[in-house]
Amino acid sequence: MASKYKRVRKEFDYMHCDDFAAYLSEMAAKGWHFKIWEDRLVFEKGEPADVTYAVEVFDKAKERDLEPGWDAFEFSEYCEAAGWKFIDSRRKFYVLKKIREDAVPLFDSEERVKNAWKASFHIAEIIAVVLCIGFMAFVVNSFASFAGFTNFIFAYEKVFRGMFFCIALFGLFYSYGERIWIRIRLGADKKNGREIYLGNHRKGAFHIYMLQVLLLVAIVIFLMDLCLLGHVKIVAFALVAAVAIILFCIFLRRVFPKRRESKEMLIVYWVAIFLGFMVMGMNNSESVDSRKNAAQEMPFLVTHYREYPHASKYKLSDISRTRSIFGKSTEYTAWYTIDEKTDQRIRYNAYESRCDWVLNKIWRNAKKEAMSDGITYCTEDWQAEEAFRNGGGDYYVKYNNMIFVLHELPDVYLTKEQIDIIRHKMDFK
């Protein structure tokens, strides 16, 4: 036996009120009449009928309202007198059904547009846009420098944050852009004497679903990358936390299908945000124990290829590795004691990636920054695609899938024999 009720999840924003009303009328024509608004739209099976619905934005309602308040009951009396029956409300949406042929509009067109436009912009969304723009400005600035780009592109938590904020910013801009476009179109319609229609003649808000799908894709990519990096326990924790939050939400909606103030849902959202940023904020670097294993794992020390006056004062070594879906970065560092108050370090980096654009971007940034001090090309000595030494003594070497950087002292100039030793130690082909 077919169910008498149908529950449908549909998303609309305030600038699509007439799209919402058109959807309800379309369902009534199929025999499904809007009954109540819980966590989803609930329709009751009946005879197909030509029913006119209206969806209005009630300025006195609150964004967190999940059921009609006292203002709604006062408003319903006004609706009855105007030929409309109040059905249900959620947030600032008020759903009405036409009950008399001589029913008059509850709001004039200018007031409808004003209420919908005002309700469409929330302080939380505005703050989110500012934060996203600020973070993206930081990312763009990072891309302009050698150190900034390498620190960003080879750290999965930074890449994921960038991906997350890009998607969020795109979704917010798309959403705001559509609302602004509707507002401009409404102004043109009013000027030309056309009917004011809040919406784009769609039966749903596409941008809301689009943002949810894109965020889900970003999260899946992030979890897959974590698994590839060996952080299975973190992925398991995140999945268990997500399932627990979802089950808690389902429990709340079943026990409290309609609540005046949804404070418990705000708690859930904040917990979810906290867990998400805790995972995103984890450090991706793997540091080898300085005193035990690093010296053995170092491909070479400075004493392997040249004389070093402080060789006998070797202190410790460190290897730091970071990686992301774009490749990996490894930094090798050895410290030597000059005197009681001064240490000197000799370090070198290897940046590996299968993405040509990543290595090309790193190389362009390196050359741009080195130009100010002057560069000396030494490509043949390194048997590389391109190689140069800057004025500060740093050697930059580009191979097929790697960029090698040796940070030497300004007064050190490597010979062909010394370079061959380094190439052999690093196994450069």
Mean pLDDT: 78
* Strand and helix order: EHEEEHEEHHHHHHHEHEEEHEHEEEH
Strand order of the largest sheet: 7-8-9-10-14-13-12-11
Rg, please? 31 Å
Query: How would you classify the helix and strand content by structural class?
Result: alpha+beta
Features:
429 residues; alpha+beta; 14 strands; 3-stranded antiparallel sheet
Describe the structure.
The protein is elongated, with a radius of gyration of 31 Å. Helices cover 47% and strands 20% of the residues. The model is unreliable at 258-266 and 283-292 (pLDDT under 50). The chain is α+β, with helices and mostly antiparallel strands and 429 residues long. The protein has helices spanning 17-29, 70-82, 109-120, 123-143, 146-153, 156-191, 206-228, 232-255, 263-280, 294-297, 356-370, 379-382, 416-426, and strands at residues 5-8, 32-37, 41-45, 53-57, 84-90, 93-98, 286-287, 314-324, 327-337, 343-352, 375-377, 386-390, 394-398, 402-407. β12 (386-390) and β13 (394-398) form a beta hairpin. The strands form three sheets. An eight-stranded antiparallel β-sheet has the order 7-8-9-10-14-13-12-11.
